[in-house]
Amino acid sequence: MTTPVIIVHGGAWTIPKDIVEESRDGTKKAAKAGYTVLSSGGTAIDAVQAAIRVLEDTPCFDAGTGSVLTAKREVEMDAVIMDGRTLKSGAVACVQNIKNPIELARMVMEKTSHSMLVGPGANLFAEEMGIERVPTDSLVSEEAVRELESFQDNYGGTVTNLFKPRASGHDTTGAVALDKNGNLAYGTSTGGISGKKPGRVGDSPIIGLGGYADNDVGGISCTGHGESISKVVLAHQIITAMRTGTDAQEAADKALANMASRVEGYGGVIVLSRLGDVALSYTTDNMSWAWAKEGTIHSGVNPGEDIQEPVGGV
């Protein structure tokens, strides 16, 4: 019997002081939601979905409600979920008017023979599955509007300013879980980068780039500048290093250092080994994260933080 554990992140960036506590609270609640599933005997897949739903429903995160805006002031979201036991995955990209894209990603995995649906096809599938369309306005936070106005017509400036140390902006959310049967899963959900061209897709919904899960090795969810993550195949770097014997923390640290060196890209990762070892690393000023194991939730926002409290107290 394996000891269940879940880790979540709310994105790697410089978190404004006025939403630090909301970010901290949101990741703790997400970790608790996932851990509640695991501690009652639920699967890693169910735990990841439960955790990401909380992140998608929290406006300070760039996922679901709170997603950033494209250059045309629309919301286009990406999400993915992967089963480390079977290596099956499901993803959606550029989906619109869906409150919880992680649910639709799971339906792609379980109810189709495909691994990804995009744009209008993803929305058509959502209709077929009976998922309610919601107004775009219901997914847009004040922070997302402010961000777009700050970088309107200057997408290059958005990338330069949001994805580096001392950056300020929204970013991807994710979760990785290990259940009592030793099965791993990971999931990621994002609204992308503020001011992006309609149709832009980053690393998040593509397995091996923005995340991966394999029962034989571990699970990963990445966050940061999607194009940079894609160039260095960040999740693949980490999983390959772990497969050859590197521990999770060293693999995460080295992969992020390599991304900064090779392509001047910044971000963060959360990792679980197949044995439940926890690792997290980031090259931005902050990353909101939380993980739960053996009845305790660990959380942090700033470098060096590790606040511990009973799961029941969160």
Describe this structure in words.
With 314 residues, this protein is α+β, with helices and mostly antiparallel strands. It is 33% helix and 25% strand. It is built from nine helices and 13 strands. A nine-stranded mixed beta sheet has the order 4-3-2-6-5-1-11-12-13. Helix 1 runs antiparallel to helix 2 and helix 2 runs antiparallel to helix 3. The protein is globular. The model has no long low-confidence stretch (mean pLDDT 93).
Keywords:
four-stranded antiparallel sheet, 33% helix, 9 helices, nine-stranded mixed sheet, 314 residues, 13 strands, alpha+beta
The total beta strand count reads 13
Calculate Rg over CA atoms: 17 Å
Largest sheet: 9 strands, mixed
| Uncertain runs | none
The strand order across the widest sheet is: 4-3-2-6-5-1-11-12-13
What is the overall number of helices?
A: 9
Share of helical residues: 25-40%
Alpha-beta content class = alpha+beta
Termini distance? Answer: 26 Å
Instruction: Provide the β-strand percentage band.
Output: 25-35%
Q: What quaternary form is this? A: single chain
- Rough outline: globular
Average pLDDT metric? 93
Q: Spell the H/E element sequence.
A: EHHEEHEHHHEEEEHHHEEEEE
